[in-house]
Amino acid sequence: xxxxxxxxxxxxxxxxxxxxxxxxxxxxxxxxxxxxxxxxxxxxxxxxxxxxx
Length: 53
Description:
Layout: H1 18-31, H2 35-48
């Protein structure tokens, strides 16, 4: 049976260096995804690929 899933989100204010934000915005626009979606994917990738010592 089809079930609609809804992600739970929390609002947070984050500050990015200007050059990093511009680069992320360009990538998001080129990939046709939202900036929020791109940042989430980047964070998940980083967490999944950390060297856990």
